[in-house]
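[step 3/7] fold_predict: job queued, chain A
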Amino acid sequence: MALLAIALMAFALLIAPFPAAAQQSPGEAWPDAPTFSETGPLTSDTGQVTFEWQAFEPTRLTITGDNGRSRPIYRGKGDRLFVSGLADGDYRAELVGEDSGTGDTIMVEVRHQSLTRALLLTLLGGVVFLMVLAIILRGARRG
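[step 4/7] structure written:
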């Protein structure tokens, strides 16, 4: 019985796949490295961006601004992160697998709408509100 158990263990070791690190040749990409879902740069005119990725291991997401300072913004097993409050500028987001040490990079371009445009849209909204209010009040007087 013990001989059968040893033979089965030896057979399992022979047919079991080797770990990815053992099969990886130098310079070759890690097979299950985390990757962003988007391929091109992300753009935002509000300072908000949603990062989505595929990963088979815990990941670390770091963002680097124009000033060259990088800061970690996420660490865990999720596959999506919403970030807000980004100022105008270009950012580099780097996603790295905690086990493999490799990952993916994506650029983020933040260009807020101009203050003039925002004020114009606010004024337009105010005019529409006042018109609706006037129509409601006129209808209430007749009724």
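[step 5/7] annotate
The helical segments are 2-15, 20-23, 115-142.
The chain has two domains: 18-112, 113-143.
exit 0
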